[in-house]
Amino acid sequence: MNYTSDHLYASPDYNSGDDSSTIGDDSSPMYQRDVRSRRRLQQYDLPRRNHMKSTLPWLLSISLLSVPKFAVHMGPSILSRELQAPALPLTPSISTLSKFSSHPINHRGSTSIYDEHAAKCDSYGNSAGRETASKGDLYGSTPQLTRHHVSTSNLGRSDLSRHPGSAIDIFRTDPHSVNQLDFHDFGDGFEPGYISDDYVGPAMELMYAWTMIDIEFDSIEARDLAIFEGDYIAENNLPLGLDVWRDKVFITLPKWKTGIPVTLATVPRHSKKRNPKLKPYPSWQWHRSENCEGLTSVFRVQVDECDRLWVLDSGKTELAIRSKQLCPPAIFIFDLRTDNLIRKYTLPDEQIKQDSLYINIAVDIRNHDCSSAVAYLSDVWRYGIVVYDFFKDTTFRVEHPFFYPDPLASRYELHGIKFLWTDGIFGIALSPVDIRDDRTLFFHPMSSFREFAVSTSIFRDKRTADRNAEEFVPVGRPRAKDYGHSSGSAIDRNGVMFFNMVTRDSVWCWDTRKEYIPQNLGVIGTSNVSLIFPNDIKVDHEPEQSVWLISNRLPMYLYGTLNSGNINYRIFKASVKEAIRDTVCDPNYVVPDSDPGLDDNC
Is the pLDDT confidence value at 574 over 90? Predict the structure, then answer.
């Protein structure tokens, strides 16, 4: 992954317009409140200025709004039509890339990718040069960022304006639909009267939303000192990984830049605020150690069924600047009932290559035997898996060509930003135990459109793993022909996989008992406002499982186009049962016969 600006082409006016919601409580940094105060004064002072100067722009705007024929419709997209999403209202495009515009879509009842694919093939093909259909709804990587202004006396219904001829999404316009107008009553400092277009899916519930991350310091003086010394720079703190245990939601903050005082924190699961301050976990002391005894830079964590938190510490800091290996990668295992450290294991030097970056962890426990756990760690930059045996307290490293990135999938384009990332093995997820008392480890590189699998039985020891390289197999077909990059993945007890599609602003699902082909992949959520770069995803251990995911606009953060006045970070939750209902991922869903006339190249 190359985080320099050599491959960056960002729209200069990306910061204009978004789903802006402003934090107005004491959790906001002081300079934010000063900026808002000045803006309010400017608004109040408007009538006292020259009346003609202030009136002419309004008259001009009104006259333009009354001429719908001047509305510009974007051209078709080069994106694969294997996935469609709920319709979005037409809004001005922030980035006008001639080779990457959005395509019109229609929302239909089925969420099967196959259905949309078959319906769109004949009419659109996969050519970027055809004429746009009459619909004005946009989806894809065009940054359609909207904010709806709704008066506080009219919070019972949506007032979504649209251009003539554009389709209406029934989920957006029905005031009784799930997650429709929930956001006027945050009770957390967001300004009343502003509703962010946060619809993601019929089962998705917005749990948290932040413009910037604030930390729970021991005192006001400690906070002021951290700001003064540059130890806390609010806009540099980006939440990335998450997991859930009982009443706690764990959030990781890797140290991409300076000014990040905490790398692992919690928020209450049932918070009264949608933007709570993050509390350091287990305590501040674990984040102040300078001798590598504490936590350095954590990307992801895993809660196991034995009430333990597995923390994979990369040991790397300032990755967006010059990447310093401050401490060796290590595994920390905490008892969640006491918050005490059970064990720390530091990876040996021979398993750490130059520029290694350990970012993901999956934990395998069989028959509730907590002492025989096995953890799999993925090295995204040097393309390997490290297998940790809890009972033996040992590790070994495995490498395979399937862990490498696909050069043809290393080009990314997201909301007007173009970049090249060569990320290897990234998403890892374990299937349920099968009839042979074995599990399958599913994995994929970030820069790839393919899924792969291997039986965990070959990971008994390094010799067995090295001698069974043929046991690593590709699964099915590519998930998409273009923009099929996936980050995290997770599998529930019934074998349904959920995975984030980072360049499609969406979350997909797959029943692992079915063939991995486009018509067997479903969509549980999509939004080019609220799901910009969905990063981590987890399935909790509750009796009725839920899927949790976090979106964080990582490319905008890395390449300097993140607008601190907008909602940038969100955490969503959905009941697994409700998320897959009536989708191809539902075990009871009957897959239709393949259309013999379907052209795979369209």
Answer: yes
- CA 413 → CA 1, 238, 424, 602, distances in Å? 14, 21, 18, 21
Phi, psi of 428 (to 5 degrees): -135, 135
Q: Given the structure tokens 């939440």, which residue do they identify?
A: 239
Least confident of 69-83, 363-377, 476-490: 69-83
Cβ pair 550, 242 in contact under 8 A: yes
User: Using a CB cutoff of 8 Å and minimum separation of 24, what contacts does 159-164 make?
Assistant: 160/89, 161/89, 162/89, 162/90, 162/136, 163/68, 163/71, 163/90, 163/136, 164/68
115: confidence class by pLDDT, cuts 50, 70, 90:
very low
> Which is it for the CA torsion 314, 360, 248, 369, positive or negative?
negative
440 and 469 Cβ atoms separated by less than 8 Å: no
Contact (CB, 8 A) for 480 and 489: no
As a whole-number percent, the residues of the chain with pLDDT over 90 amount to: 62
Give the tokens for residue 15: 């910061």
- Distance separating alpha carbons of residues 228 and 225, to the nearest angstrom: 5
Give dist(CA 212, CA 206) in Å, integer. Answer: 16
CA–CA gap between residue 182 and residue 200 (Å, rounded): 13
pLDDT at 197: 54
pLDDT at 593: 67
Report which secondary-structure segment, H or E, holds 60.
helix 51-65
Dihedral over alpha carbons 383, 389, 394, 399 (to 10 degrees): -20
Render 463-489 in DSSP notation, one character per residue: HHHHHTGGG-EEESS-S-SSS--EEEE
User: For residues 256 and 551, what is the distance between their CA atoms, to the nearest angstrom?
Assistant: 16
pLDDT in tens, 12-52: 333 334 444 433 344 444 434 454 454 444 444 444 444 44
Cα torsion 539, 545, 546, 549 to 10°: value is 0
DSSP 261-291: --SEEEEETT-SSSSPPBEESS-GGGGS-SS
DSSP 518: G
Domains (range + CATH), the chain: 204-600 (2.120.10.30)
pTM of the shown model: 0.71
Of 420, 425, 472, residue with least CA distance to 444: 425
pLDDT, one tens digit per residue, over 387-413 is 999 999 999 999 999 999 999 999 999
Residue 73: both structure tokens together: 């419709």
Average pLDDT, the chain: 76
Tell me the C-alpha distance between 506 and 158, whole Å: 23
Q: How many CB atoms lie within 10 A of CB 192?
A: 14
**Tokens 């990314």 found at:** 412
pLDDT for 3 equals 52
